[in-house]
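Why should sequence recovery work at all? Because a backbone constrains its sequence more than one might expect. Tight turns favour small or flexible residues, buried strands favour hydrophobic ones, and helices have their own preferences. The token representation captures these environments compactly. In the example below, the structure is given first.
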């Protein structure tokens, strides 16, 4: 098997799927949602540029945090089109994801507090 430069333009959907661990259908879905882009050959086959590998990694990180497709699209819209993201791009996304996670943790803590009986209610339940 020949070595492949991950930054080389012209990756097929199969190559991106293999390297990213995603199904080709997931890549086609991401493209239909505007999260990644491809060029088309004269035979209408997709060809991805090297930056798609970084974008897929970013998409997966955003999904693990629980962002919606619309939120992921907004986060990725700040990246330069067709270029491998810079260190600053990654740092900006990481700050955004940390903020999202903190907000979600706060929301979950609020929900836990609502579901937990107050100390007085808990004492009454134990003695009752």
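From this structural description, the recovered sequence reads:
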């Amino acid at each position: 098997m020949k070595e492949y430069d991950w930054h080389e333009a012209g990756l097929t959907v199969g190559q991106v799927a293999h390297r990213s661990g995603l199904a080709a259908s997931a890549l086609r879905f991401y493209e239909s949602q505007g999260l990644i882009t491809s060029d088309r050959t004269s035979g209408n086959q997709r060809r991805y540029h090297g930056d798609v590998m970084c974008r897929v990694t970013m998409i997966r990180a955003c999904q693990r945090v629980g962002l919606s497709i619309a939120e992921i699209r907004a986060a990725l819209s700040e990246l330069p089109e067709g270029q491998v993201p810079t260190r600053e791009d990654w740092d900006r996304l990481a700050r955004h994801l940390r903020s999202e996670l903190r907000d979600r943790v706060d929301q979950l803590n609020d929900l836990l507090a609502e579901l937990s009986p107050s100390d007085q209610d808990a004492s009454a339940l134990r003695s009752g």
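A few observations help interpret the result. Strands lie at 39-40, 46-47.
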